[in-house]
Write a structure and sequence with these properties.
InterPro entries: DUF7878 (IPR057200). With 150 residues, the protein is α+β, with helices and mostly antiparallel strands. It has one domain. 28% of the residues lie in helices and 28% in strands. It has a four-stranded antiparallel beta sheet. It has a three-stranded antiparallel beta sheet with strand order 1-2-3. α2 crosses α3.
Length: 150
């Protein structure tokens, strides 16, 4: 497999079957939208962690909206579930590449990748996750956007 290939995937580990409609709309239940987030570089699982997927989607959405300009900024995924001020993972711009740093490396891999490849992978997961969260949990993400505490 191409060592420069890069992918971001997820799988849900929770559902809202037991929640009423009003409970689904409660922002406190935002963190019940959970899943395993996986970053693969080549054939190596570089990062794999259980995360609050709606929180991740919202932060990713904000970052992607800001990179449409020439000025590409770092993306650091901090989660409110962790007390430490350490991101679970970061995308740090370096020339025309991203240095991908994670809190815990699962398998070692070359972690300096072309920006276009990394942005493309995160745009893809952003689009798919938006639809998948709404279908899996029976919610509308837009209903949460003005209620989140971050």
């Amino acid at each position: 497999m191409d060592m420069n290939s890069f992918s971001v995937n997820y799988r849900f580990t929770s559902n809202f079957n037991r929640l009423s409609f009003s409970e689904r709309m409660d922002v406190a239940n935002l963190y019940l939208i959970e899943g395993i987030l996986v970053i693969k570089i080549g054939d190596k699982v570089y990062f794999e962690e259980d995360v609050a997927l709606l929180e991740f989607w919202i932060l990713l959405d904000r970052w992607l909206k800001n990179i449409e300009s020439e000025n590409i900024r770092a993306f650091r995924y901090y989660t409110l579930e962790m007390d430490d001020n350490i991101p679970l993972f970061s995308l740090i711009p370096y020339q025309d590449k991203f240095l991908i740093e994670v809190i815990e490396v699962k398998e070692m891999a070359a972690n300096l990748l072309p920006q276009d490849k990394v942005i493309e992978a995160f745009k893809k997961v952003h689009s798919h996750l938006y639809n998948d969260i709404q279908n899996h949990y029976g919610i509308y993400i837009d209903d949460y956007l003005d209620k989140v505490p971050f």
